[in-house]
Amino acid sequence: MSIGIIGSGQIGSAFAQALARNRIKAIVANSRGPGSLASLVADLSPYIAAGTVEEATQADMVLVAVPWSKIPAALAGLPDWGGRIVVDANNPIEAPLFKPAELHGRLSSEVFAELVPGAKVVKAFNHLQPHLIAGDPRAEGGNRVLFYSGDDPQAKREVGALIERLGFAGIDLGTLAVGGKLVQFPGGPLPSLNLVRFN
Ligand SMILES: NC(=O)c1ccc[n+]([C@@H]2O[C@H](COP(=O)([O-])OP(=O)(O)OC[C@H]3O[C@@H](n4cnc5c(N)ncnc54)[C@H](OP(=O)(O)O)[C@@H]3O)[C@@H](O)[C@H]2O)c1
Predict the structure, then answer these.
(1) 10-residue mean pLDDT series, the chain (199 residues)
(2) What lines the ligand 1 site, CB under 6 Å?
(3) How far apart are CA 190 and CA 105, in angstroms?
(4) Were 59 and a residue from 4, 8, 34, 159 both cysteine, which residue would form a disulfide, CB within 3.0 to 4.6 Å?
């Protein structure tokens, strides 16, 4: 399964680090183009390569980690996703004001899903601070917990398998309507909880 990453900031690069540590390849993209990613790619070579947004979005699974107000522009003009998996790592709030976005009573993942027509959306990697995604998920002796949710069972299985392969303990929270609400930040009860599963 090929992996793309849109957004090379705190969360996008933390996810890239987690992949590279586990020798998993991916293409990462930002708004400024592949040339601006030379340093990140050099650090994570040979697993993480820089590409354009168009190149990264051709992958089987694409994680999007872009500030909320910039997501529409980041995903504009792309072809139908054709059933591929898009991981929504985003939260509807951003620096510097940290004022929650107006969602008109909807979940952020529902709003996000409309921006990726034809995609199977899985909400994941949005509830932990970047250093906890980038760092060793077994650092406390167990496995750090990552929640995920989505409406397509197969897409969730694929994301859950990747989460386990990265060394985290994945917990399936159910559908986007249920799990997306639990991990929504701000508002949900689960964001920022750094849990570790001991078996
Ligand atoms: N930071 C956290 O603690 C945290 C935790 C959980 C979830 N999140 C969520 O994760 C998402 C990303 O947050 P972040 O902290 O990683 O943000 P960030 O450090 O500011 O990075 C944002 C990234 O988005 C890229 N980007 C912006 N506009 C783009 C466009 N039109 N096309 C392609 N790429 C574009 C930027 O590329 P350029 O620099 O080239 O413009 C940059 O690489 C947000 O939705 C946030 O709510 C953040």
Answers:
(1) 98 98 98 98 97 97 98 97 98 94 96 98 98 97 98 98 98 98 96 93
(2) 6-12, 30-32, 36, 53, 65-68, 70, 73-74, 89-91, 94, 126, 129-130
(3) 19
(4) 4
